[in-house]
Design goal:
- With about 600 residues, the protein is α+β, with helices and mostly antiparallel strands.
- It folds into three domains: about 10-105, Beta Barrel (OB fold (Dihydrolipoamide Acetyltransferase, E2P)), CATH 2.40.50; about 140-280 and about 450-580, Bira Bifunctional Protein, Domain 2 (BirA Bifunctional Protein, domain 2); about 300-440, Gyrase A, domain 2, CATH 3.30.1360.
- The chain is about 30% helix and about 25% strand.
- Strands 6, 9, 10, 11, 12, 19, 22, 23 and 24 form a nine-stranded mixed sheet that branches.
- A hairpin with a 7-residue loop joins strand 20 (about 460) and strand 21.
- Helix 10 (about 345-355) crosses helix 13 (about 420-440).
- The two termini are about 55 Å apart.
Amino acid sequence: MLRTHTCGELSKKSVGEKVTLCGWVHSRRDHGGVIFIDLRDRYGLTQIKFNPEINAETYKDADKLRDEWVIEATGKVVGRPDDMINKKLKTGEIEVEIDDLKILNQSKTPPFSLEEEKSGEANEQIRLKYRFVDLRRPKIQEMLKTKAEFINHIRNYFREREFIEVQTPILANSSPEGARDFLIPSRLYPGKFYALPQAPQQFKQLLMVGGLDKYFQIAPCFRDEDSRLDRHYGEFYQLDMEMSFVEQEDVFKVMEPLWLEITKKFSNKKIVGLDENGRFRKIPWRESMEKYGVDKPDLRFDLEIKPITEMVVGCGFSVFADAVKKGGVVHALKVDGGAKFSRKEIDELTEIAKSKEAKGLAWVKVEQFDENKKEGAYVSNTKSYEVVGVPVKMLGGLIEEIVKAVDAKAGDIIFFGADKWETVCLSLGAVRNACGEKLGLKDKNKAAWCWVVDFPMYQMSEIEPGHVDFGHNPFSMPQGGMKALETHEPLEILAYQFDLVLNGFEASSGAIRNHDPKIMYKAFELAGYPREEVDQRFGAMIRAFEYGAPPHGGNAPGIDRILMVLNDWDSIRDIYAFPKDGKGRDVMMDSPNDVSEKQLKELGIKLR
């Protein structure tokens, strides 16, 4: 080893020792003929000094040093004077007087500062292009270290419970997981393609057929979908697990203790929202959509949407009455303290509702009763409050019933959605989320976990109008089995599918699987897949299930996303050592890039 110690371990106990340190020049200061260098490695900083009276030749070499040069320095540990102690550093009580210096490598001037408080001054593209420099920042190194410990904790948890870690194939087959596949042309079989796995879904189910009983892995997954705050482009990692001879509740009982441990160990957040037994709440999908306007509710705050459709049938406000007449619904969202919103803020919330296909956003404010009431205001019978807003005049006394139904009081605002059920849910859900931001209700000191259950098996296809497609995971068991598939309308069928949600982010998807070939054929038939296509695309699974498949289920939490949410990190990209940018490019390695005509010819590919 070139070094005897790291730059983060020396202390007052080390005074008098001769040590050798290696690292990067973090900063340099010249004081009264003495050169001070902060030497950095991933363990911390140590101040070293070069005094011409100790070694004139070494001092002369030190005078050449610049930021990010790599050096080896040997000298004696001495205590700092009391007025020079740096309490911000672990090594702040000592410094090292250097009498021997070796310059191991020089460095160009870095394209940006590595000081954390200045790191934000460089745009992301520059930092990603020079990621090998950006990786030297302590914050990035701490993230990568935390991620390694996080994964290690997960591995130990499952090994203690007799799960077997198995690596499933990376070169796989294309499957309808809901996103675009990355296709890999085969040289040996021209015109045919592998696909990078969107998830090890089929393989882990085949492991259950193979009798492995309990499986897990930290699985790399690949999806050609746009990046966003909580989604890294192209590739990500998930904790993939599967169990045999289980029901949905068994999966929950295995997973919940892990996430309680993880929250306590890897964040400073207080866990909130557990049920009376200390378990994660289970919210049916339809209830989640109606109450929170989303299938991944943020339960750190209580704003709930309430249906008021029955109350407004045939009312005088045509926006509500017409929506109901057309088979739609009317829902109300009461926002505590929202009466203070300005017209500009309400207009912004209206645009948010419109982004979810709402035609607008009706609202009323509940205010303290004023003798000099505004024209058009509705005054409560008790004269304890008055209600103002466009719908007031048309709704008349009905507005007081609505105020009571949503439990509003003076100082609140009530937003209304009137349209198709899904549009109303999604638009008011988006408004709820925005109000949570505006009012500071998303407490960063809280972690609210929950399960969303009972997802619809099918949904209307976005590609083929009038047809249905799988709403979640095509390999899930429909609730009611074959009987439900044969007797219910597809959109009425629920599946044994569930999502794990943390602070408004989807943390995991899972299901009890369809392990019966007859039920699988029928489920795919309703989604428009003929038997021949099912055999072609999922032949291995169909054949396997014909040889005695056990009931099984599992889930696949996204470990990068969970780590990001628990630590309130700005972007999921920083959790990767070498991330893609927001447009899916690796600007450091310049990929994707062109390949040679020879390579294309070998693969039988011609570019159009």
